[in-house]
Structure formats: structure tokens, C-alpha cells
Amino acid sequence: MQNLIQKIENQLQRLPVPVALQLPAGQRVGPSAASVTLAFKDWSSLATMAAGQIGRLAEDFVEARVQMQGQMRDVMAVAAGLLPGSPTGGASTGWWTNILRRARSLAAHSPHKDAEQIQFHYDVSDAFYALWLDPRRVYSCAYYRDADMTLAQAQEAKLDHICKKLMLQRGERFLDIGAGWGGLLLWAAERYGVRGTGITLSKNQHAHVLAEIARRGLQGQVEMHLLDYRDLPEDQPFDKIASVGMFEHVGSANMPAYFGKIHRLLRPGGLVLNHGITAGAPGHDQLGAGMGDFIEKYIFPGGELLHVSQILRETALAGLEMVDTESLRPHYAKTLWAWSDALESRLDEALVTLQGAGSEAEKILRAYRLYLAGSAMSFEQGWISLHQMLSTRPDGDLHSGSMVGAQSVYPFNRVGMYSN
Questions:
Q1: Of 83, 111, 305, 393, which sits most exposed with the smallest number of CB within 10 A?
Q2: Is the pLDDT of residue 151 over 70?
């Protein structure tokens, strides 16, 4: 036991912020004036910390085996300092590993399992999400076009950034796959005049968007369905398609089917934008040091991350041509810190919104506190990333319109994309 305590004391000296520990026997280790204090109920949690297994340490916090005091930015600095190395290092991409990964992915992403997993996360409590998201409840990476934007302004900038990339035009048929609480779908309808269709597997989100459609008088122009993307009818192709924060839930084994479905849903010459979280290194569908296991258990069951190169390969294999790819990784770090700060400032209210979960309410709150701050840290460090990938379905027409040789409506420059 003394060796473990000595190892911990050596660790504390190397951490970027002062940390104090309350040991199971009652003694205190570390400086008297500490930015972060961790209190341990049993020695196994202390051994987990010494091993740098911060995902398991996070689980101990959620399960109340460890108590924590301190600002979340300081806590995350400690977490990063405890890691023995990069959580994206040492990827294994051998044939047997790939077979096992594919089998696991197929098992985890049947239509029934996907619906269960989406509802596990998104149907926690609408009031809970409303506490720390922007007023439109846009639950994806914002776009800080100007550094001093508020979260709400940056989310509206993101919605417009997507609409401009897709070159939305009045009257076009627009599909939003995984439409969430309707932020993009309603923005595109009201600002660009599209005829919008949204789908989700979340019952709460579906009900919310239907109510918003009625409140805004958009019946007949916008429709929202509780529907799996695999079940979308293909008889009337869409002019433009967006998928925001959705392909992380598809699963690597289903990527060919996912992009094949998009190809069939998109009219020749149309545009599709995929916006989603990508792995920081090839071959990693989750972070190491127990971090991915924590997310799988408490936040996003069934979530898988692919490297942007893998996503683009699947896009190309489906017959879609990538015409623009943009990394928004730093934007997501800033977005997540904004969410984390908002939640930290309203913890008591957040607990009230989760009372429907009964005895699990405090666990859920502790898990989300670590998930938001830990994700912010992961994007800052570059362990995970975020990409917007714009693609077209070539139409084979080289001579129509002003873009001779384009095979799509995509222009030859980004002027329209970045104009205010």
C-alpha cells in the first residue's frame, strides 16, 4: 500500500495543477491549497488513478466511489496529466481485429438496437438539454465565425454555413437525416424556403419538432418522421441532403449501406453534407485509457468513430464525389466548453430536470459533467476531430449551365460559402 501511495505522490508532483487526495483511511495527500481534490472510498479507485485509466476513474466518480471538487477545466488538466500516453496511440489494424470490429459493429446496429441507443441518449430529458444548449437546441458543433460570438450566435452561424455549402434554393426538396430538435430543418425552411423533411429515432425530438412546425405555421412545407434512415422511401429523390451528428451512430459495418442509401436518395447533380465526429487516428473507433468504454456505457452506446480518410473512402465507393472537406475541430472544443460551463452553472436545476430518471438522476448528471468537459479536452488535444464533408452525386452532364465540366451545381470557388 505504501508503494501505491508513493507512486501517487510522485504523480501529483508532475500534474499541471495542484491536486490533493483524500485516501480511504482518512489521510490527506497533496498540498493544502489545491485546485482539485479527489476523495476515494476504496483503494481500487486509487490504483486505477495510478495506472492512468481515466475512463475507469470517471466511472468511479459516476458511481460515487470517488468524489471530486474543483473547476472542470482543472479536472480535465489533471486527467490529461494522468495519461501514460496518447489515447490514440497503438492502433491495431490486423485482419483478425478488423473482423472482430466488423462483427461487433453489425451486432450493435440493427434498426431495433439503433433506436434503443438513440433513445437512451437523446430522450434523457428535453428540459435537461434545454438548460445548457442554445435556444434552438442545436446539439452539434457550432461555427465560431467570429471568435467573440456567443454560443447561440455560433450555432446560427453553423446552420447558415451548412445551408450555404449546400447552396439551398427556394422550393428544393431538402432532407435532414438525424434532425435532432429541428434547428437546421427549421432554419432551412424559414430562411431558404426549402421543402424540408427530417427524420429521427428520438421520440422526444420527434414530438418537439412537430410542435415547432405547428407553432411556426410550417405545415405543408416541413415534415418530421420517427424513422430509421434505412426505411426512407426512394421514389422521390431529394435535391439536397444534410446529415449532422448522425454517422457516428451508423457503425463502421453499415457505412456502405448508409452512403449507398444517400446516393439513391439524392438526385443526380445534388449535394449532400455529412457533418460528424471523426477519429483522431486511423484504426481507432474509440479512445483508449478506458475513455471510450466510459462513453459507450454512460453516454453513447453503440457509437463508433472512423477517421476522415475512411469516411471519404466510403463516400467515394458509394459513387459520391467529395467536393469540399473542412475540419471544425477547434470549434467543437469551444462549443463543448460552452455547454460544460452552462451545465456547471446550473447543477441544482439540472438535477431537478432529471428527476424522471429516479435513482439514476445523480448518476446521469455526473456522467454528463465528465462527458462534456472530457470531450472538450479531447477535441483540444486532437484525440478526436470534427469534419464537414460536402459531396455531390455526379450527373454526367458536362455542358448545362455556366459550370461546364462540373457534373453538379458545385461552384469553382468558395466565395458563396464564406460570404456573410
A1: 111
A2: yes
